[in-house]
Amino acid sequence: MTVNDPSLHAIMSERRRLINLAYRLLGSLSEAEDVVQETYLRWYALPRTQREAVESVGGWMTTVASRICLNLLASARARRERYVGAWIPEPLPAPAERAAGRLSGADPADQVTLDESINMAFLVVLESMTPAERVAFVLHDVFRYSFAEVAEIVGRTPAACRQLASSARRRLRNARPGTTLTTSAVSATVSTAPTTTGPATGPGASSTAPTTTGPATGPATGPGASSTAGSTAGSTAGSTAAPPAVPAAARSNTPAHDPAHDPANARAAVPTAARDAGVVAAFRRAWQAKDIAALIAVLDPDVKATGDGGGLVSAVLDPVEGRERVARLLIGLAAAAPGLTMAERTVNGRPGLVAQHAGTTVAVYAFDVAGGRIRRIWVVRNPDKLRPWTTGAVTNDRPAPS
């Protein structure tokens, strides 16, 4: 295969979609990149005759990447029990931030599409799901795979996958009753699911489903992808299932419910985004002025602030609840860090803040705003999670007064 081979372009064009899928499944861009790299390694490890026999390269890669993620999710639960403090998903900047040169350069294929399935509040709820629930929900409700396709990927029956997705939706509803963070945040912007063309076939089409997913639905039918991600997956393959019957051309590089595909939804989101941005701006001004009364005014009475330092830098180990306690904590932080510069930036598709000291990003703040007040604050300080934010000084902002 040469660099001018059209099939090479088709194969590499899957990268962005796989990054989008893996980030939503794992909540970590670095792990998502590792999963995609492992998926490509397995593809090229197949004999050429097996690769040529695969009808749907996109389906094959989706199956492999999803199974690697499923195993990683199972092992991540144990790892996060040993994590120092709270574990918060890795925050993502807007693609425009990199395009403008503010942040370190990256391949456009690695950029994650920002929509309702990527905001921090949504990702935090995904963290409460079992690995099987999360995979079934993301594949079906976000990327619009049928339950038959999901079943082939995770090694369960379509009925079992339907139940998993239903359980995941209940978690969303229970996490945020009476607010916009419910399944409507996803389903309201879902476009028609891509059509399929029948089962994928060929000697390289089958791969093993991870043992963490429960009973498999069929026997092994040939070699292909195993379910571990090299040294990172942490488990081995079990039963088997074929990849989904979806040609690569039938899937876009973004989730099927990307609001950008629906101008009406995009227009409706603008006023909400503007209101939320105004609340975050008021929060920044009050914090930098050390105006505790103004700060309390923009916080919900039941606001909760959670920090993530990963044991590498200082951060609150337990969530702080209540607007008076949160306000006092923030004022104390401002006093303890003179010269800290705050910038309003898009964080996971929502208005957020980036804190820098001496030109180095030291924290990224994500918010959940409802009813004109901030209900949740997530502060990511773990430097391992700030890679996408580490270069380029923030601008148009003044330092917090000392």
UniProtKB/TrEMBL annotation:
<dbReference type="GO" id="GO:0003677">
    <property type="term" value="F:DNA binding"/>
</dbReference>
<dbReference type="InterPro" id="IPR052704">
    <property type="entry name" value="ECF_Sigma-70_Domain"/>
</dbReference>
<keyword id="KW-0804">Transcription</keyword>
<dbReference type="GO" id="GO:0006352">
    <property type="term" value="P:DNA-templated transcription initiation"/>
</dbReference>
<dbReference type="InterPro" id="IPR013325">
    <property type="entry name" value="RNA_pol_sigma_r2"/>
</dbReference>
<dbReference type="InterPro" id="IPR036388">
    <property type="entry name" value="WH-like_DNA-bd_sf"/>
</dbReference>
<dbReference type="InterPro" id="IPR007627">
    <property type="entry name" value="RNA_pol_sigma70_r2"/>
</dbReference>
<feature type="region of interest" description="Disordered">
    <location>
        <begin position="169"/>
        <end position="269"/>
    </location>
</feature>
<feature type="compositionally biased region" description="Low complexity">
    <location>
        <begin position="182"/>
        <end position="250"/>
    </location>
</feature>
<dbReference type="InterPro" id="IPR032710">
    <property type="entry name" value="NTF2-like_dom_sf"/>
</dbReference>
<keyword id="KW-0805">Transcription regulation</keyword>
<keyword id="KW-0731">Sigma factor</keyword>
<dbReference type="Pfam" id="PF04542">
    <property type="entry name" value="Sigma70_r2"/>
</dbReference>
<feature type="domain" description="RNA polymerase sigma factor 70 region 4 type 2">
    <location>
        <begin position="121"/>
        <end position="172"/>
    </location>
</feature>
<feature type="domain" description="RNA polymerase sigma-70 region 2">
    <location>
        <begin position="12"/>
        <end position="77"/>
    </location>
</feature>
<comment type="subunit">
    <text>Interacts transiently with the RNA polymerase catalytic core formed by RpoA, RpoB, RpoC and RpoZ (2 alpha, 1 beta, 1 beta' and 1 omega subunit) to form the RNA polymerase holoenzyme that can initiate transcription.</text>
</comment>
<protein>
    <submittedName>
        <fullName>RNA polymerase sigma factor (Sigma-70 family)</fullName>
    </submittedName>
</protein>
<dbReference type="InterPro" id="IPR013324">
    <property type="entry name" value="RNA_pol_sigma_r3/r4-like"/>
</dbReference>
<dbReference type="GO" id="GO:0016987">
    <property type="term" value="F:sigma factor activity"/>
</dbReference>
<dbReference type="InterPro" id="IPR014284">
    <property type="entry name" value="RNA_pol_sigma-70_dom"/>
</dbReference>
<dbReference type="InterPro" id="IPR013249">
    <property type="entry name" value="RNA_pol_sigma70_r4_t2"/>
</dbReference>
<dbReference type="Pfam" id="PF08281">
    <property type="entry name" value="Sigma70_r4_2"/>
</dbReference>
<comment type="similarity">
    <text>Belongs to the sigma-70 factor family. ECF subfamily.</text>
</comment>
